[in-house]
Amino acid sequence: MTDEGGNVYDQFDVTLEDSDLLGEVELTTNLIIAATESDDALSVEEIDRILGVVPHPRKGD
Questions:
Q1: Which of 29, 31, 41, 61 reaches 20 to 30 Å from 22, CA-CA?
Q2: Closest CA to 53 of 42, 39, 41
Q3: Among residues 49, 48, 50, which one has the least CA distance to residue 30?
């Protein structure tokens, strides 16, 4: 498929400008790197730390 100027349209030539998506890609990349560098499975606490999760105290604790 071509445009009016005769340029070929490439459906895979997409610019990512979505900051939320880029943030998710960064978090996923960080998890992949940490998992690759670890000899064992990552604990929930390690995953939370990598993702920047701040634990909220439960009601009644």
A1: 41
A2: 42
A3: 50
- The pLDDT tens digits for 16-52 are 578 888 899 999 999 999 999 999 999 999 999 999 9
The structure tokens 């929930």 sit at 44
pTM of the model: 0.59
Q: How far apart are CA 47 and CA 35, in angstroms?
A: 9
For the chain, the structural domain boundaries read 19-51
pLDDT at 61 over 60: no
Q: What residues form DSSP beta bridges with 8?
A: 2
